[in-house]
């Protein structure tokens, strides 16, 4: 079974731009979560989607948004990028909402 | 609300020595507990998990952890360290359906160094 895939793996943007990251979960998994990892703040939960509905949201500004499609693939969008948004963005998938998560390799976003 | 505390941001052991990484948690609902490992420039790999049942859980690569409710701990151990174990280890907690679904709250991580 293929694992969680994330595209692109690396991204460089400038302040003020917006970015969209993509995540394809493991086949059959319906839950997708997103996390931000930075040296200063560590691993922080962004949001969780299940069956195309956002079920949980972390403490991030409204510039961070996401969605999930009917095939469970998910995208997250960050608008008006700031230098502090530079991070590794990790996507995780799970078969259910009371299960455990399998992580993708991440997308490394650099904001200049 | 849930939180995780990992004692020791850096741990160094000799190859062949016992590995002990400490994790204490706080949770308002019965916790699901996890240990993940991260190698440089990679995502997180699940080492082991506790959801219900047996409190001593065995994971991949010879790691195990014991859920101790009275101590609110979930320490990770391995009897004999190998050079390939050098990585960053994260303890995490979630609350299952009663406490936030799959939302993971992570500790700050412990960087394990294995020396010859």
* Class per helix and strand makeup of chain B: mainly beta
Low-confidence stretches of chain A: none
- End-to-end Cα distance of chain A: 37 Å
Most extensive protein-chain contact, per-chain counts? A-B, 26 and 24 residues
In terms of DSSP E residues, the strand content of chain A is over 45%
- Beta percentage of chain B is over 45%
- Net shape of chain B: globular
Question: Could you give a short description of this structure?
Answer:
The complex is a heterodimer of chains A (112) and B (116). Chain A is 0% helix and 54% strand.
Helices and strands in order, then pairings?
The complex is a heterodimer of chains A (112) and B (116).
Chain A: E1 5-7, E2 10-13, E3 19-24, E4 31-38, E5 42-50, E6 53-57, E7 64-68, E8 74-78, E9 87-94, E10 102-103, E11 107-111
Parallel strand pairs in A: 2-11
Antiparallel strand pairs in A: 1-3, 3-8, 4-5, 4-9, 5-6, 7-8, 9-10, 9-11
Chain B: E1 2-7, E2 10-14, E3 19-27, E4 32-38, E5 44-50, E6 56-58, E7 64-68, E8 73-78, E9 87-94, E10 105-106, E11 110-115
Parallel strand pairs in B: 2-11
Antiparallel strand pairs in B: 1-3, 3-8, 4-5, 4-9, 6-7, 7-8, 9-10, 9-11
Describe this structure in words.
By secondary structure, chain A is an all-beta fold. Chain A has strands at residues 5-7, 10-13, 19-24, 31-38, 42-50, 53-57, 64-68, 74-78, 87-94, 102-103, 107-111. Chain A is globular and about 35 Å long. The mean pLDDT of chain B is 93. Chain A binds chain B through residues 4, 31, 33, 35, 42-45, 48, 50, 55-56, 58, 90, 92, 94, 97-106, and chain B through 32, 34, 36, 42-46, 49, 51, 90, 92, 96-97, 100-109.
